Amino acid sequence: MTTVLKLGGSVVTDKSEPETVDREALDDAAAAIAAADTTGGSDAVGTADSDGLVVVHGGGSFGHHHAAAHGVTDTEGTHDVEGVLAIHDAMRELNDAVVGALQDRDVPALPVHPLSTAHRDSAGETTLPSEQVETMLAEEFVPVLHGDVIAQSNEGATVLSGDEIVTLLARQLAADRVGLCSTVPGVLDADEVIDRIERFEAVADALGASDATDVTGGMAAKVRELLDLDTPASIFGPADLAAFLAGEQPGTLVQRRR
Protein backbone atom coordinates (compact mmCIF):
# COMPACT_ATOMS: atom_id res chain seq x y z
CA MET A 1 0.00 0.00 0.00
CA THR A 2 1.39 3.38 -1.01
CA THR A 3 0.37 6.60 0.70
CA VAL A 4 1.09 10.12 -0.50
CA LEU A 5 0.95 12.63 2.37
CA LYS A 6 1.04 16.40 1.96
CA LEU A 7 2.09 18.51 4.93
CA GLY A 8 0.75 21.98 4.26
CA GLY A 9 3.18 24.86 4.44
CA SER A 10 1.01 26.47 7.09
CA VAL A 11 1.34 23.33 9.20
CA VAL A 12 5.13 23.23 9.35
CA THR A 13 5.98 26.95 9.21
CA ASP A 14 4.98 30.18 10.91
CA LYS A 15 3.52 32.09 7.97
CA SER A 16 3.57 35.36 9.91
CA GLU A 17 7.39 35.31 10.02
CA PRO A 18 9.41 34.86 6.81
CA GLU A 19 11.44 31.65 6.68
CA THR A 20 10.44 30.46 10.15
CA VAL A 21 9.82 26.79 10.90
CA ASP A 22 7.10 25.93 13.39
CA ARG A 23 9.35 23.52 15.26
CA GLU A 24 6.69 22.22 17.63
CA ALA A 25 4.19 21.49 14.86
CA LEU A 26 6.86 19.91 12.66
CA ASP A 27 8.09 17.71 15.50
CA ASP A 28 4.51 16.62 16.24
CA ALA A 29 4.05 15.66 12.59
CA ALA A 30 7.36 13.80 12.53
CA ALA A 31 6.37 11.92 15.68
CA ALA A 32 3.07 10.84 14.12
CA ILE A 33 4.85 9.64 10.99
CA ALA A 34 7.47 7.80 13.04
CA ALA A 35 4.77 6.03 15.04
CA ALA A 36 3.17 4.69 11.86
CA ASP A 37 4.42 1.67 9.91
CA THR A 38 5.51 3.54 6.79
CA THR A 39 8.01 1.20 5.14
CA GLY A 40 6.41 -2.24 5.37
CA GLY A 41 9.26 -4.04 7.09
CA SER A 42 12.20 -5.93 5.62
CA ASP A 43 10.10 -8.92 4.50
CA ALA A 44 8.16 -6.67 2.16
CA VAL A 45 11.03 -4.83 0.50
CA GLY A 46 10.77 -4.81 -3.27
CA THR A 47 7.35 -6.45 -3.39
CA ALA A 48 4.19 -5.00 -4.84
CA ASP A 49 2.46 -5.31 -1.48
CA SER A 50 5.03 -3.39 0.54
CA ASP A 51 3.90 -0.28 2.38
CA GLY A 52 5.41 3.03 1.42
CA LEU A 53 5.00 6.64 2.39
CA VAL A 54 5.82 9.63 0.21
CA VAL A 55 5.85 13.00 1.97
CA VAL A 56 5.31 16.28 0.14
CA HIS A 57 5.39 19.64 1.89
CA GLY A 58 4.32 23.13 0.91
CA GLY A 59 6.24 26.38 1.03
CA GLY A 60 4.61 28.20 3.92
CA SER A 61 6.70 31.20 4.94
CA PHE A 62 9.69 30.07 2.87
CA GLY A 63 9.18 29.96 -0.89
CA HIS A 64 6.07 32.07 -1.35
CA HIS A 65 7.42 35.52 -0.56
CA HIS A 66 10.46 34.94 -2.79
CA ALA A 67 8.17 33.83 -5.62
CA ALA A 68 5.98 36.90 -5.12
CA ALA A 69 9.00 39.21 -5.06
CA HIS A 70 10.15 37.87 -8.44
CA GLY A 71 6.67 37.66 -9.97
CA VAL A 72 6.81 33.89 -10.39
CA THR A 73 3.67 31.72 -10.33
CA ASP A 74 2.70 28.38 -11.83
CA THR A 75 2.01 30.17 -15.14
CA GLU A 76 4.30 33.24 -15.07
CA GLY A 77 8.00 32.49 -15.14
CA THR A 78 11.36 34.19 -14.85
CA HIS A 79 14.77 33.87 -16.52
CA ASP A 80 16.47 35.62 -13.59
CA VAL A 81 18.78 32.93 -12.24
CA GLU A 82 19.18 34.76 -8.92
CA GLY A 83 15.42 34.76 -8.48
CA VAL A 84 15.16 31.07 -9.31
CA LEU A 85 17.89 30.24 -6.82
CA ALA A 86 16.31 32.41 -4.11
CA ILE A 87 13.03 30.50 -4.38
CA HIS A 88 14.71 27.10 -4.62
CA ASP A 89 17.19 27.75 -1.81
CA ALA A 90 14.39 28.81 0.53
CA MET A 91 12.44 25.64 -0.26
CA ARG A 92 15.55 23.50 0.08
CA GLU A 93 16.17 25.02 3.52
CA LEU A 94 12.64 24.09 4.61
CA ASN A 95 13.04 20.63 3.10
CA ASP A 96 16.24 20.16 5.11
CA ALA A 97 14.26 20.99 8.26
CA VAL A 98 11.48 18.52 7.41
CA VAL A 99 13.90 15.73 6.48
CA GLY A 100 15.96 16.46 9.62
CA ALA A 101 12.90 16.30 11.88
CA LEU A 102 11.92 12.95 10.38
CA GLN A 103 15.43 11.54 10.64
CA ASP A 104 15.60 12.67 14.27
CA ARG A 105 12.62 10.34 14.82
CA ASP A 106 14.41 7.50 12.98
CA VAL A 107 12.25 7.84 9.87
CA PRO A 108 14.47 6.95 6.84
CA ALA A 109 13.66 10.20 5.03
CA LEU A 110 15.56 11.42 1.98
CA PRO A 111 15.10 14.67 0.00
CA VAL A 112 13.91 14.85 -3.59
CA HIS A 113 14.22 18.32 -5.17
CA PRO A 114 11.79 18.87 -8.09
CA LEU A 115 14.02 21.54 -9.71
CA SER A 116 16.44 18.73 -10.60
CA THR A 117 13.83 16.22 -11.79
CA ALA A 118 10.72 17.95 -13.17
CA HIS A 119 9.97 20.27 -16.09
CA ARG A 120 7.07 21.81 -18.00
CA ASP A 121 6.51 22.09 -21.71
CA SER A 122 5.37 25.26 -23.44
CA ALA A 123 1.71 24.25 -22.98
CA GLY A 124 2.16 24.05 -19.21
CA GLU A 125 2.06 20.26 -18.95
CA THR A 126 4.26 19.05 -16.10
CA THR A 127 6.52 16.01 -16.24
CA LEU A 128 7.72 14.65 -12.90
CA PRO A 129 9.51 11.31 -13.35
CA SER A 130 8.61 8.88 -10.58
CA GLU A 131 11.32 6.23 -11.02
CA GLN A 132 13.57 7.81 -8.37
CA VAL A 133 10.71 7.85 -5.87
CA GLU A 134 9.69 4.28 -6.74
CA THR A 135 13.24 3.03 -6.17
CA MET A 136 13.46 4.86 -2.84
CA LEU A 137 10.20 3.25 -1.72
CA ALA A 138 11.39 -0.21 -2.78
CA GLU A 139 14.52 0.32 -0.69
CA GLU A 140 12.43 1.35 2.36
CA PHE A 141 13.26 5.04 2.26
CA VAL A 142 10.69 7.80 2.71
CA PRO A 143 11.03 10.31 -0.15
CA VAL A 144 10.33 13.91 0.87
CA LEU A 145 9.44 16.28 -1.97
CA HIS A 146 8.45 19.94 -1.84
CA GLY A 147 6.96 22.77 -3.83
CA ASP A 148 9.70 24.24 -6.00
CA VAL A 149 10.60 26.14 -9.16
CA ILE A 150 11.09 24.08 -12.31
CA ALA A 151 12.23 24.86 -15.84
CA GLN A 152 9.44 25.56 -18.34
CA SER A 153 9.79 25.93 -22.08
CA ASN A 154 9.53 29.58 -23.15
CA GLU A 155 8.99 30.76 -19.55
CA GLY A 156 12.33 30.21 -17.86
CA ALA A 157 11.23 28.79 -14.50
CA THR A 158 7.76 28.57 -12.96
CA VAL A 159 6.35 27.31 -9.67
CA LEU A 160 5.42 23.66 -9.15
CA SER A 161 3.12 23.51 -6.14
CA GLY A 162 3.11 20.76 -3.55
CA ASP A 163 -0.54 20.08 -4.39
CA GLU A 164 0.32 19.37 -8.03
CA ILE A 165 3.17 17.09 -6.95
CA VAL A 166 0.69 15.12 -4.82
CA THR A 167 -1.69 14.49 -7.72
CA LEU A 168 1.10 13.70 -10.18
CA LEU A 169 2.67 11.13 -7.86
CA ALA A 170 -0.66 9.67 -6.80
CA ARG A 171 -1.36 8.80 -10.43
CA GLN A 172 2.12 7.60 -11.34
CA LEU A 173 2.57 5.48 -8.22
CA ALA A 174 -1.03 4.20 -8.33
CA ALA A 175 -1.24 5.33 -4.71
CA ASP A 176 -3.80 3.66 -2.48
CA ARG A 177 -4.38 6.70 -0.26
CA VAL A 178 -3.78 10.44 -0.38
CA GLY A 179 -3.82 12.74 2.62
CA LEU A 180 -3.61 16.54 2.85
CA CYS A 181 -2.78 17.75 6.34
CA SER A 182 -3.90 21.36 6.58
CA THR A 183 -4.43 23.88 9.37
CA VAL A 184 -8.19 23.24 9.23
CA PRO A 185 -9.89 19.97 10.24
CA GLY A 186 -11.31 19.46 6.75
CA VAL A 187 -13.24 21.30 4.07
CA LEU A 188 -15.55 23.67 5.92
CA ASP A 189 -19.08 24.82 5.24
CA ALA A 190 -19.30 27.72 7.68
CA ASP A 191 -17.84 26.10 10.81
CA GLU A 192 -18.89 22.54 9.97
CA VAL A 193 -16.58 19.96 8.39
CA ILE A 194 -18.02 18.51 5.20
CA ASP A 195 -17.84 14.74 5.65
CA ARG A 196 -17.60 13.73 1.99
CA ILE A 197 -17.26 15.48 -1.38
CA GLU A 198 -18.23 13.62 -4.55
CA ARG A 199 -18.96 16.56 -6.88
CA PHE A 200 -17.35 19.99 -6.93
CA GLU A 201 -20.63 21.70 -7.75
CA ALA A 202 -22.10 20.47 -4.47
CA VAL A 203 -19.55 22.42 -2.43
CA ALA A 204 -18.69 25.33 -4.74
CA ASP A 205 -20.68 27.84 -2.68
CA ALA A 206 -19.01 26.71 0.56
CA LEU A 207 -15.54 27.00 -0.97
CA GLY A 208 -16.33 30.37 -2.47
CA ALA A 209 -13.02 30.51 -4.35
CA SER A 210 -12.37 32.13 -7.71
CA ASP A 211 -10.06 30.84 -10.39
CA ALA A 212 -7.53 33.47 -9.29
CA THR A 213 -7.53 31.98 -5.79
CA ASP A 214 -7.08 28.50 -7.26
CA VAL A 215 -3.81 29.58 -8.88
CA THR A 216 -2.36 30.25 -5.44
CA GLY A 217 -3.41 26.86 -4.11
CA GLY A 218 -6.75 27.64 -2.48
CA MET A 219 -9.02 24.94 -1.13
CA ALA A 220 -11.16 24.98 -4.28
CA ALA A 221 -8.11 24.11 -6.39
CA LYS A 222 -7.23 21.26 -4.04
CA VAL A 223 -10.71 19.79 -4.20
CA ARG A 224 -10.87 20.01 -8.00
CA GLU A 225 -7.55 18.22 -8.37
CA LEU A 226 -8.41 15.51 -5.86
CA LEU A 227 -11.76 14.79 -7.51
CA ASP A 228 -9.88 13.94 -10.71
CA LEU A 229 -7.94 11.19 -8.94
CA ASP A 230 -9.02 7.55 -8.78
CA THR A 231 -7.45 7.46 -5.31
CA PRO A 232 -9.52 8.42 -2.23
CA ALA A 233 -8.14 11.55 -0.58
CA SER A 234 -8.63 12.93 2.91
CA ILE A 235 -8.25 16.57 3.97
CA PHE A 236 -7.72 16.92 7.71
CA GLY A 237 -5.97 18.88 10.45
CA PRO A 238 -2.77 18.06 12.35
CA ALA A 239 -4.70 16.47 15.22
CA ASP A 240 -5.90 13.75 12.82
CA LEU A 241 -2.55 12.96 11.19
CA ALA A 242 -1.95 9.87 13.31
CA ALA A 243 -5.47 8.61 12.61
CA PHE A 244 -4.97 9.01 8.86
CA LEU A 245 -1.66 7.16 8.97
CA ALA A 246 -3.36 4.40 10.95
CA GLY A 247 -5.76 3.83 8.06
CA GLU A 248 -8.71 5.97 9.08
CA GLN A 249 -10.40 8.63 6.92
CA PRO A 250 -10.58 11.73 9.14
CA GLY A 251 -11.76 15.16 8.07
CA THR A 252 -13.24 15.37 4.59
CA LEU A 253 -13.10 12.43 2.17
CA VAL A 254 -12.79 13.61 -1.44
CA GLN A 255 -13.70 10.95 -3.99
CA ARG A 256 -15.76 11.36 -7.13
CA ARG A 257 -18.72 9.01 -7.44
CA ARG A 258 -17.87 6.53 -10.20
Automatic annotation (TrEMBL):
Per the record, a Pfam family?
A: AA_kinase
EC number(s) per UniProt?
2.7.4.26
Q: Where does substrate bind?
A: 59, 64, 162
State if Protein biosynthesis is listed as a keyword.
no
GO process annotations (BP): terpenoid biosynthetic process
Where along the sequence does the record put site: Transition state stabilizer?
15
Q: Which residues bind ATP?
A: 6-10, 60, 218, 222
The Aspartate/glutamate/uridylate kinase domain, residue ranges? 1-228
Coiled-coil intervals:
none
On subunit structure and binding partners, the annotation says: Homodimer.
Q: What is this protein called?
A: Isopentenyl phosphate kinase
The organism that produces this protein has a lineage beginning with: Archaea, Methanobacteriati, Methanobacteriota, Stenosarchaea group, Halobacteria
